[in-house]
Design brief:
about 25% helix, five-stranded mixed sheet, globular, alpha/beta, nine-stranded parallel sheet, about 575 residues
Length: about 575
């Protein structure tokens, strides 16, 4: 038996006999949680399926639309989802101010109308605040109904790019304009936004694409001479799709080599030795030569949409893994199948698929967000409380080989009112775009190889406030845009810093010591953690106004008329839950 068949059989046995319970209420085995794992959801904007449900027609409704998205992201973060596939292009329309295509109607209810803000920029900022990666999901080939406003607009501007199949319009992958057109969309997003990736969806020939004469001849040739998928027409179509992906890859990497290019593919690459794809596969039916994409490195990640059960899922998932060429493969799991009108799958089937994908080192992507947050058959509770109770890092991309990352410096902590604030310094050799991973443990030194010690990932600031109920030690690492992590800086074993005593504030005023202790001081000086002077306030009475200062950590000094300063202590302005 070949190794491929052995692994396929092994994983099928696991799927058949392991994880047979509903998976809830079991004591987790901490050794089974990976430190690196993609945990993704597709967040659909088309027709507001996942978001938005509120139309942006005035100032109040814009704020409701934004709040709706932040509520979604808060819940996803609570379940330790680390990757958002955010639909930025629907059907030849965008949810950002594009110079190429008009606004999608999902935002305002009116095609071509601006919502009054940039939803993609807002989504990126909010994801990054929560330590999540975000990829701009682009629906590539379909452009909507033939007589829709979307389709008519793209046809008018790009004669010869669009073809009609039935009642639908599609970008013709064989058109010499196809690859540059999609590449320009990728270039526009990459150049203007701090995006973590571009995610190409429906990057394939539609199953309804009409047969040409050469197709019919090749079908006859296959019957008579047992020709394989390497017939003339399929090969040509594969090259057309590959050309689009290569153009997108080049457009992205020339600007920002750390931005990922990922593709959602049909869930089965091709027929296996022991399992048929039943006519629905990426290589022949969709003309997606995925293994060539991986081998040549024009994609960083693949998301096979494996919305199947049993022998239609497990052997094909392992086939993807075995032919990954070192790249990240993330199985798309069809959690929508849990609903009554989409198959009414038992929750145990989804749990099995998640466990098997993890055992194969592949992570998961859920289609779609709403079915997770609706807690379909308890899936959200299971994910948050049992399957992913700890954060996980997104695996580095292959192009990161040889990248260096500098360790942060001088980690110290300050305790106050049941909270502990960690502060650290930037390494002088740090690159722009550096973020931080925070670890905590009751034992010293903190083991940063243990994923259960991760408490925050991709944190954008050099300070964080954590509610503590027991004695903890901390460690911090840097991570660069490629996902490479530095060695850690460990907290010194002493539990207090030399920053001085904590000075109370209520978010509006700061409480100061009596003036007679300050001698001739006339002012107080507030500095940020980098030592920059932020504000001065006259010292009068026992309070000073800080209502206009942003949330953050500040060192407080007295300042006299001669310019002499004396450090008084440390304060944290924390109007929100976490700095």
């Amino acid at each position: 038996m070949k190794i491929h068949d052995r692994l396929s059989l092994f994983i099928t046995i696991i799927a058949s006999f392991a994880f047979t319970s509903e998976g809830k209420g079991q004591t987790p085995n901490y050794n089974n949680y990976p430190k690196y794992e993609v945990r993704a959801v597709w967040l659909t904007t088309l027709a507001g399926l996942d978001w938005p449900h509120n139309k942006a027609i005035n100032t109040n409704s814009v704020e409701k639309q934004k709040q709706e998205l932040t509520d979604i992201l808060d819940k996803l973060k609570a379940a330790n989802i680390n990757t958002i596939l955010f639909q930025a292009r629907t059907r030849a329309a965008s949810i950002y101010p594009s110079s190429i295509e008009p606004w999608d109607a999902c935002l305002t209810g009116t095609y071509g109308k601006s919502p009054g803000y940039d939803p993609l920029a807002f989504a990126i900022d909010e994801c990054h605040k929560r330590g999540m990666e975000i990829q701009a999901w682009i629906v590539t080939i379909p452009v909507g109904k033939w007589n829709s406003e979307n389709c008519k607009a793209i046809r008018k501007k790009n004669s010869g790019l669009i073809v009609k199949i039935g009642t639908e319009g599609y970008i013709d992958p064989s058109s010499p304009m196809a690859a540059p057109y999609i590449a320009n969309i990728c270039r526009e997003i990459t150049s203007r936004y701090d995006i973590d990736g571009i995610h190409l969806d429906y990057i394939r020939y539609p199953e309804t694409w009409p047969l040409k004469m050469s197709d019919r001849l090749n079908k006859k040739r296959k019957r008579n001479y047992h020709t394989t998928a390497d017939d003339i027409n399929v090969t040509t179509r594969q090259k057309n799709i590959t050309a689009i992906i290569r153009a997108a890859h080049n457009a992205i990497k020339q600007l920002k080599p750390w931005v990922k290019l990922s593709c959602a593919t049909i869930g089965k690459h091709s027929d296996l030795a022991r399992y048929s794809s039943r006519g629905w596969n990426a290589l022949v039916k969709g003309c997606q030569d995925t293994q060539k994409w991986l081998e040549t490195g024009i994609v960083d990640q693949l998301y096979p949409m494996a919305y199947f059960q049993g022998d239609n899922f497990y052997p094909f998932i392992i086939d993807w893994k075995e032919n990954s060429y070192g790249h990240t493969i993330v199985p798309g799991i069809g959690i929508y199948r849990l609903t009554r009108n989409e198959g009414d799958w038992p929750i145990g089937e989804i749990i099995r698929q998640m466990h098997v994908s993890r055992a194969a080192g592949m992570g998961f992507a859920m289609f779609r967000e709403r079915f997770l947050l609706d807690n379909s058959k308890g899936l959200y509770e299971f994910t948050k409380d049992e399957f992913a109770p700890f954060p996980a890092l997104v695996p580095p991309i292959q192009q990161s080989c040889g990248q260096n990352i500098s360790t942060p410096q001088n980690l110290r902590t300050v305790k106050h009112d049941g909270y502990e604030t960690l502060i650290w310094d930037k390494n002088p050799k740090e690159d722009n775009g550096t973020a931080y991973n925070i670890y905590a443990s009751s034992t010293y030194p903190v083991d940063t190889d243990n994923p259960c010690n991760l408490i925050a990932i991709r944190h954008p600031n050099r300070h964080i406030t954590i509610k503590t109920e027991r004695k903890l030690y901390f460690a911090v690492t840097s991570t660069n845009r490629y996902g490479i992590e530095s060695p850690s800086v460990q907290q010194v074993k002493a539990t207090t810093s030399d920053t001085g005593k904590f000075i109370y504030n209520d978010g509006t005023n700061i409480s100061l010591p009596p003036k007679d202790e300050l001698h001739d001081a006339e002012y107080i000086l507030l500095k940020d953690l980098s030592g920059r002077n932020i504000a001065t306030r006259p010292y009068k009475g026992y309070n000073a106004d800080i209502s206009e200062l942003p949330d953050g950590c500040y060192t407080i000094y007295s300042l006299n008329a001669k310019g002499i300063t004396h450090r008084l202590g440390f304060t944290i302005i924390k109007r929100s839950n976490t700095i």
